[in-house]
Amino acid sequence: MQSKTISSAVIRRLPRYYRYLGELLENGIVRISSRELSIRMKVTASQIRQDLNNFGGFGQQGYGYNVEYLYQEIGKILGLDKKQTMIIIGAGNLGQALANYDFEMIGFSVIGIFDANPRLEGLAVRGIEIRNVDEMEAFVKSCHVDVATLTVPKKNARELAAKLDEWGVRAIWNFAPIDLIVSDEVCVKNVHLNESLMTLSYEYRNKHAAAEPEE
């Protein structure tokens, strides 16, 4: 499976499958066909079968998919079957909101929160004390950190990312509105809130343009 190149579009759909299958489990549904799943997800049954065939298929003709098994297998593909540790750098409104979110339900554990503001030092979010960024290097080198979340101003993001790369952190979840410069060993996922909102604005304006009054 690892030798096969999987398209980014398929990978982006995997978390949706995982979420929908989790909801089916909560509702006590044991099995489901690709057609039934397509109706719920608004993705064609053919697309679902093609996506899952990239990883072995998992279905049985005439039976469909075992919901619990498929949920567990997609979780493994996404790396959610093993606990992953995460630190948050930047304890402003966004950083604290993320620290308060229950990432444990998908296997991520926040083990450290850092900020440059000395007034935040010692405050706790979900039982984790905010530390000064000066302590971060020692913390990262003494604790295994899988993911670093950046919620800092863009002027600081690249420098911090370079340091995290140097210290051995291999995954960065970046909320700063800037592209990071790191080595090829580091996986970066950008979450640019402004870009997401502008995309929504474009889609909204184009979908409803005919209904808007002319000036």
DSSP, total strands: 9
CATH architect. name of the largest domain: 3-Layer(aba) Sandwich
CATH homologous superfamily assignment of the largest domain: NAD(P)-binding Rossmann-like Domain
Give the averaged pLDDT, no decimals.
92
The proportion of residues in beta strands is: 15-25%
CATH topology of the largest domain: Rossmann fold
List the helices and strands and how they pair.
Blueprint: H1 8-26, E1 31-32, H2 34-41, H3 45-53, E2 65-66, H4 67-77, E3 84-89, H5 93-100, E4 108-115, E5 124-125, E6 128-132, H6 136-142, E7 147-150, H7 154-167, E8 171-174, E9 187-190, H8 193-208
Parallel strand pairs: 3-4, 3-7, 4-6, 7-8, 8-9
Antiparallel strand pairs: 1-2, 5-6
What structural keywords apply?
alpha/beta, Arc Repressor Mutant, subunit A, two-stranded antiparallel sheet, 8 helices
Task: Characterize the structure shown.
The protein has 215 residues and is an alpha/beta fold. The chain folds into two domains: 8-76, Winged helix-like DNA-binding domain superfamily/Winged helix DNA-binding domain (Arc Repressor Mutant, subunit A, Orthogonal Bundle); 84-195, Rossmann fold (3-Layer(aba) Sandwich). Helices cover 43% and strands 17% of the residues. It is built from eight helices and nine strands. It has helices at residues 8-26, 34-41, 45-53, 67-77, 93-100, 136-142, 154-167, 193-208, and strands at 31-32, 65-66, 84-89, 108-115, 124-125, 128-132, 147-150, 171-174, 187-190. The strands form two sheets. The chain has a seven-stranded mixed sheet. Strands 1-2 form a two-stranded antiparallel ribbon. Helix 5 links the parallel strand 3 (84-89) and strand 4. It is globular, with a radius of gyration of 21 Å. The relative contact order is 0.08. The mean pLDDT is 92.
